[in-house]
Amino acid sequence: MAPQINPSILSADFARLAEEAQAVEGADWLHVDVMDNHFVPNLTLGVPVVESLARATHTPLDCHLMIEDPDRWAPQYVEAGAGSVTFHAEAAAAPVRLAREIRAKGARASMALKPATPVEPYEDLLAELDMLLIMTVEPGFGGQAFLDIMLPKIRRTRELISKHGLELWLQVDGGVSASTIERCAEAGADVFVAGSAVYGADDPAEAVRSLRAQAAAKTASSAWACGH
After folding, report:
1. Is 188 annotated to bind ligand?
2. Which of 10, 21, 53, 77 is deepest in the core (most CB within 10 A)?
């Protein structure tokens, strides 16, 4: 799969969300961070804003739920128009059941892991997912520095995906920029959430194209991709 770039509206101007979404319409997905001020110490937006965004852009929405009780709330984001819904392993009571419900409603099901959460205990349920998100910062705030110590975890996850022959996307989120995206791609990521690196650029659409080109070039020469 070609690398995908998902600009994060957490770094956009919240007073101009429709315009900010349209400014990156060449992106693969629009990453929407939902925070409840309980699972993470920040409060962002919810279902009504997702519904409005879905009407305002042709770019599919990739909703990342940093919330408690996703088993209850995640299906509502599919109904609101999200094409992909990510819940946190640390918050879900029944991740397999939840992933199946998200898929049954017509969206891609994704699970996220915080930096301190290992991937190995979840090996057996990876087949139930369409994407796994490896957080490369602590969730809750944009603009944080990339955690290099997550690179071995990305590699181990890619090895598990290959081991089981899965068509599972591997997303990274946190501190992804022109200076870090190649390391992520080399380690095995193929979906990249970029906030400040896109919306902090003079030309967000060009930033998306440039990041995608960087990731594609590095992926092409990476051992994990060459082995496919």
Report:
1. no
2. 77
